TrEMBL record:
Domain of life assignment: Bacteria
Keywords: Membrane, Signal, Transmembrane, Transmembrane helix
Residues of the signal peptide: 1-22
Protein name (Swiss-Prot/TrEMBL): Cobalamin biosynthesis protein CbiL
Species per Swiss-Prot/TrEMBL record: Marivivens donghaensis
Spans through the membrane: 130-150
Length: 155
């Protein structure tokens, strides 16, 4: 009975929230148009899911992503715009396009060029978290093995 209780306690302590697919959003201003896309860190895009754009708490645009998880709409305000993608399966992500009168083309090109790097960083962060958890589990197993070995040697 003690072993079962101990096993349940260890299982509950080691259990963590599942992060099957972390969702990200990239958005940029290109003149009077806001364009962007959603992406899952593990790969893939959120196709045909709802997105909304708000500014100062008011919805200014809404729609559904295309087959590649992309969206676009016309800028109707000079204030900052927050774009939200909600897969309605527990995955929600936000991106903010800063207030800008007119964004120079070079800035938009730089943003598009560095976006793959941002996605890679997110993937690496998730991979490191998994490796940290896995390392901790094996550390505990190793320490337990050493303690059991020492206990058996003393008898």
């Amino acid at each position: 009975m003690k072993r079962i209780a101990c096993a349940i306690a260890v299982t509950l302590m080691l259990g963590t929230a599942a992060q099957a697919h972390k969702l990200g959003v990239f958005a940029t201003a290109e003149g009077d148009t806001i364009t962007g896309y959603g992406f899952f860190v593990g790969g893939g895009n959120p196709a045909h899911v709802p997105w909304t754009a708000t500014s100062n708490g008011n919805e200014i645009a809404a729609g559904e992503t295309d087959d590649e998880g992309r969206f676009a709409f016309d800028r109707t305000t000079e204030a900052a715009i927050e774009i939200t993608i909600d897969t309605e399966e527990g995955h929600i992500a936000f991106a903010t396009v800063d207030a800008a009168t007119t964004e120079p083309d070079i800035t938009a090109q730089i943003e598009r060029a560095i976006q793959p790097l941002r996605e890679d960083i997110l993937r690496l962060e998730n991979r490191l978290r998994f490796m940290d958890i896995l390392s901790a589990v094996f550390l505990i197993i190793g320490l337990t093995g050493m303690a059991l070995w020492a206990r058996g040697r003393n008898k």
